[in-house]
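Hi F.,

I've been meaning to write this up properly since the lab meeting, where we talked about keeping a consistent format for the predictions we share between groups. The idea is simple: the sequence comes first, exactly as it goes in, then the structure tokens exactly as they come out, then a line or two of notes. No screenshots and no reformatting. I'm using this chain as the first example so we have something concrete to point to.
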Amino acid sequence: MRPPGGGAPGAHAPTPGGLAGAALAPEALHPALWRAHQLGRPGAAVLTSGYPELDAQLPGGGWPAGVLTELLLPHPGVGELRLLAPVLAALQHQQRCVMCFDPPAAPCAWAWRALGIDLQRLVVVQARGGRPGGLKGRARALLPAADVLWALEQALKSGHVGAVLAWLPARLPADALRRLQLAAQSHTGPVFLLRDAQMRSQPSAAPLRLLLASAGPDLLRLSLLKRRGPPPAQPLVLALPAVLSATARARALQPAGPADLPADRPGAGAALPSAARRASVR
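Output, unedited:
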């Protein structure tokens, strides 16, 4: 009679701590496998984010290369560029370029320089919205531009770009994301897709998804919605490089009060925080 498991008579089952048990561990069978309570191992190289507390939460200890990383924003300008500046500058120091596809506004040269970005190694690709029949206004914010998607896919397949940032619209077909994920596998750097936070509940081919939100002046809250590993217990708050002076920061931290309301318009602007109302008159 054979023992349970089909082994030969007299055979002993391998102990969990033995060599046979180690060979059957998921991470030993294939690098894309991991235990549910562990962070998965990256299939390619990773690059440090410049924020040790964030690296500790990312599989492999940094931004992954060769895959899509989705950054979901409530609106542009919550601190996403300050978050990515360390890895972008590090790649440029390796004589590699950074490509931006369809940014929501023209890059501000002095602001990018202040973040350590070399403008000589920055390439901006804009949709042809000004041509007859091109997407404009709200349609451009919702629908994908075929020329930008084509250029983005070709850039990823080329393998000659350091980092890619692409501001993609809301109504992006699922097959377009899958095509970009396949193209990213030929890319040796990080690929960041910046999309509206309303897409957080939609499925995505990106292995890494983060929801970004402001946590105060020069503070950024990150929620890891998807990663190769267990979900984190709570959001992460990062201190970004300061852009506010000490005086402006103190004013932004002040709570709203009756003195912030214009005297000639009782209740006007009550829905806005005090810092936003002050900014509107500066």
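Notes:
The first helix runs from residue 19 to 23.
DSSP finds ten helices and ten strands in the chain.

If this format works for you, I'll send the rest the same way.

G.
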